[in-house]
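User: Here's a protein and a ligand (hypoxanthine). What would the complex look like?
Assistant: Let me lay out the input and then the predicted complex.
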Amino acid sequence: MEQIYQTALNVVREKTALVPEIGIILGSGLGGLAARIENAVVIPYSEIPGMKASTAPGHIGQFVIGTIGGKTVVCMQGRLHFYEGHTMQEIAFPVRLMKLMGIHTLLVTNACGAVNTGFSIGDLMLIEDHINMMGANPLTGSNAADFGPRFCDMTFAYTPALRELALSVAQKQGTKLQQGVYLGYMGPNYETPAEIRAFRTLGADVVGMSTVPEVLTASHCGLKVLAISLITNMAAGIQKVKLSEQEVIDTAASRAKVLQTLVEGILKEI
Ligand code: HPA
């Protein structure tokens, strides 16, 4: 293993003896869950060697380690995106670091646009599978063999048992949970209407600018994965309106509580 991982892990261990079982990555406008973590130990990314700063709006950039839903978790309050100029390997780093901290499961949330016209703004969607259209992959280059194999199977990347669990918790809570395929787009521009039509033909239900690199990294190192999208807007060209970051932020804010309740309910039962 590269020395930088051990150095980073030592910094975390100096701050807390807690060993998290579940890692959580919070998407745009969804950082509020971190405030629900009890006995929280906060470690800014800037204090961790090898870790890049998150520059996206609304992404604070810190690990929050503590308990929620009776589970010990490490939460990334703010994620790293490819469009920020981070390399795919830099985006992989915190996922591998959380694996070294002790997690067995990664729970990912994101904001996305709906490609499937049967979906509505504000819907939650359980990710069943993804399409990588980001033009890059964190697993290229020499294989990090300490973490996983050269050729990583993706058949069950979005862990079937966790998806079942999420559906049953959502049903109990009376929360509608769509299911579908997430297509990862590099950004930072939103897609063109022609791209959205093409992505629909390819089988995408939603589109976003994150999640795929993290899930690839997590699958490679043997983590179970659960990923839930919040649909903040209809994708480009579906409605005859311009897309705006403000709409993404406002919808995320208005639906954050529902997603938060779902995530907490799932954590209790994992
Ligand atoms: N496209 C890509 N990323 C997004 C979108 C979108 O429409 N909405 C929120 N994140």
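Summary: The first helix runs from residue 3 to 15.
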